[in-house]
């Protein structure tokens, strides 16, 4: 039976109600009267997904028929967010479903709130992957996302006495209607063991004999394009014990050992590593990386490519995009397949491999660049280590020829680091093997070329390029901000949802008083919606009449949540001292959302401090109605979708030269918040687009930072010369926020005073000054609204559709393949 013969469900209220009731009874096994809200949600999800199914099958058939080039996006993280809303949007079912459910006395919003978001990512990198696959589907580009189906995603954050306590995220526990397991399509992945060289017909052949294996079971997810009939696939791998492995032990009579082996195998996809930017070098993490990289390659070569396909032309059919270094082990894996399994010679295999991969770097922090010790890599993947050695040997010989008198340079460029231990530099491997290396914002790409990978960019400048990040307007405007979406659509039509540059057409409306009034109404309504949510979700009371000042992102020193906090503490301190009348403070709610990596001490301390300051300030009657801190726990995609549309002020205050891009910055601007920010990451491009007068810039520039650090930075000099700063720091040190206990936050204070790697103290005064400019601007709500409208109108560049266009033009060279509608 072909996809065309499959009947599509009816796109009508009556049809939907029938399908829903059928799912509830025959799928879920529940009558209307006995069904729980979760039963109803599951039945709804299954009903909605049937609408995507025929498109999915048709997409697959079409792919097989036209054989267009595909993009394989390899990523250890896909931070998808909830699926239901997106599926309703893609299928244009929102209104039908809302009406149909209402006729049964069911509230759609209530069912939506049942969905646990798949938190299969840490932050920016994982969310970017999710935005990219959304855009590719919407742009009709054949793409398959490959990753890991973690049984536990990013931990659920709770606060106990203001300190972060992590709880497991059992996102699969209540059923997962959006995934399709395919145990019959599992592939076997080997680990450990040894290699064996022999001569066959006068040729040297090497074989890898692994000593243990696991099964990789694919789980498919639908990635629907917006209103275009395409549904791409996201394939996430889950680990399971191999049958033969179990059986051998079982036959030996040790049943318990067999079960233990099963558990060991399943550990590989058990949990997402919650470290963001600080690789731990853990063996299990390398297992995860090889597990999904190898399964994905094998899947593509054996199952996606048509039978009998000539592998020499592989690069005409696929490009493997490496999302940071996590999947880079796929490079020696492809070499191994071509050399050891297909019998190619080295040059042939290497030439092809170099055409099939491209690498995106997402960081600038030297400590975030992943290395794997030779000892570990050799133990877990002995054949891959041999291949990496050979790649390095050939490459260094080439470099030596190019720079015969520069032995130092040759050593610097080695894929194998010698100190502090012998280790493989994954970023170097990716750079040497890939067609292209890209940074994620103009400044970041420049710094990659000039600093992090300088030797490489000098040797092969043509490989280096930039693709500035973007975010999907479907989820982050259309779904998250229905009121703003309606206002925009009313003004310029709905074409902006897939062509975000058209937001430019709003520019003249910034001068239209009536439009500004309605824009402010939208913002106010979004705030009220958020205030209601925070009350129910966290028991936090927020005034809808204050400026909503928002800093949401992972907790990291370079992002400088402490700078934001010092601003709040100094306002509080000035009021306490009588230097500032509380009535002169612009009413603000400073809202934080941030998870700290569980092992990151300083970050967890900072969370404790934010909550402690919040407890004190929020209880102070003098500041009532003037200054509040809100710190809802467990910031995630779902909360972001509510918070961002309500924000007035977006905090993007990383130390210049440290934030590769940022993507939250884009989401806020598109939802009409103004940004206070440093000249860092994509802020640079944002400010150029929206105009200096609509952006609150402050702080050192990257070259200034480099110079200060070069000369020797002394944070105490700022402490000594700035009384406001001194008072704020002293107040924290005095125990004012820790029941008089001076030790509680001592590590934060001494870190700032004696180390301050990210120049918080150096930028403090500039930040305070900029906040005064913010207050003056906010005092004129109509002028503020004009700037906010201009931010929306001029940020269309930050659509991930545009990012995809750039990747297609500069790196992938793939084309749209529209799926014919039935
Ligand atoms: C544990 C090792 C490790 C190392 C780096 C884990 C995760 C990383 C990521 C590269 C960190 C990350 O998410 N980087 C962010 O990527 C976003 C998307 O490009 C950028 O917008 C952020 O600026 C960057 O910090």
TrEMBL record:
It is an enzyme of class 2 (transferase). It comes from the Bacteria. GO terms for cellular component: cytoplasm. Keywords: Carbohydrate metabolism, Glycogen metabolism, Glycosyltransferase, Phosphoprotein, Pyridoxal phosphate, Transferase. Its cofactor is pyridoxal 5'-phosphate. It catalyses: [(1->4)-alpha-D-glucosyl](n) + phosphate = [(1->4)-alpha-D-glucosyl](n-1) + alpha-D-glucose 1-phosphate. GO terms for molecular function: glycogen phosphorylase activity; pyridoxal phosphate binding. Belongs to the glycogen phosphorylase family. Allosteric enzyme that catalyzes the rate-limiting step in glycogen catabolism, the phosphorolytic cleavage of glycogen to produce glucose-1-phosphate, and plays a central role in maintaining cellular and organismal glucose homeostasis. This is Alpha-1,4 glucan phosphorylase.
